[in-house]
Amino acid sequence: MSTRLLDKVAIITGAGSGMGKSIAIAYANEGAKVVLADVNATTLDEVVTEITASGHSATSVVADMSKSADIKALIETAVNTYGQLDILVNNAGIMDNFKTVGNVTDDLWDKVIAINLTGPFQACREAINVMKDQKNGGIIINNASVGGLYGARGGAAYAASKHGLVGLTKNIAATYGTFGNIRCNAIAPGGVATNIGNTITDPDPLGGQAIAAAGSMDAPMGQPEQIAAVAVFLASDESSFVNGDIIKADGGWTAR
Ligand SMILES: NC(=O)c1ccc[n+]([C@@H]2O[C@H](COP(=O)([O-])OP(=O)(O)OC[C@H]3O[C@@H](n4cnc5c(N)ncnc54)[C@H](O)[C@@H]3O)[C@@H](O)[C@H]2O)c1
């Protein structure tokens, strides 16, 4: 067994599917005690069962990342169960059917911003207030997107939420990383084979046109495990001098 995260306590949100599930399994395999959160209790249970069946420690909290009370309960569960919190991975997120500014409703805008940006901010706040008093500080990893770096990888709300998450990452790094012992980085995945694609049920024609023009139709497709490998690196001492960075993992899509 590899032990790069031995006895670290790690929260992973959106752990019932896709990249969150892969990150949870990878962290457990590296020796971390994982606290998994998802709004979907069924898939969350399945992942916890898979991890504990392989002899690792996992706890779950059904949590909606758009609800501050759920986020507080999640952080408290980690600390009450394991006595510390070393790693927070803000991974849960949703897409927006590529809706353009002219077509996005207030409800959709508010929902995407709540789950993709406000929830991660609140989780960072609660986690930082635990981590800053710990001898070894802590590590925060935000799962952003190439949609947090470029304009046409999602709709208006998705782009705004992920650009916001990138800004939040840099602000935390520049404050709590530079003047404290909390490192904060983000991952910007390109196309990854997960369940999120199934949520694109009503794509906006103009939004879709812009995304296609950005080369999305023949973009390289990654696997969740390839993003989990980046998340292990960012959570381990191997990345001890990496702070405030946004690591693209897109198979070279945006290099073209
Ligand atoms: N798949 C891609 O191509 C891609 C590319 C770039 C970035 N991302 C980002 O990666 C992250 C993970 O997405 P994925 O592709 O693994 O998708 P996924 O749909 O497979 O998994 C997302 C998980 O988040 C959970 N979730 C959704 N809303 C939630 C909420 N309010 N509270 C708690 N959990 C919630 C879902 O139940 C699901 O288990 C997202 O932030 C997404 O924006 C995905």
Automatic annotation (TrEMBL):
Record keyword Oxidoreductase present: yes
Entry keyword set: Oxidoreductase
Biological process according to GO: bile acid metabolic process
Pfam family membership, one: adh_short_C2
Gene3D superfamilies, per the entry: NAD(P)-binding Rossmann-like Domain
Domain of life: Bacteria
Alphabetized InterPro entries for the sequence: NAD(P)-bd_dom_sf, Sc_DH/Rdtase_CS, SDR_fam
An annotated Gene Ontology molecular function: oxidoreductase activity
Oxidoreductase recorded as keyword: yes
Family, as annotated: Belongs to the short-chain dehydrogenases/reductases (SDR) family.
Protein name: Short-chain dehydrogenase reductase SDR
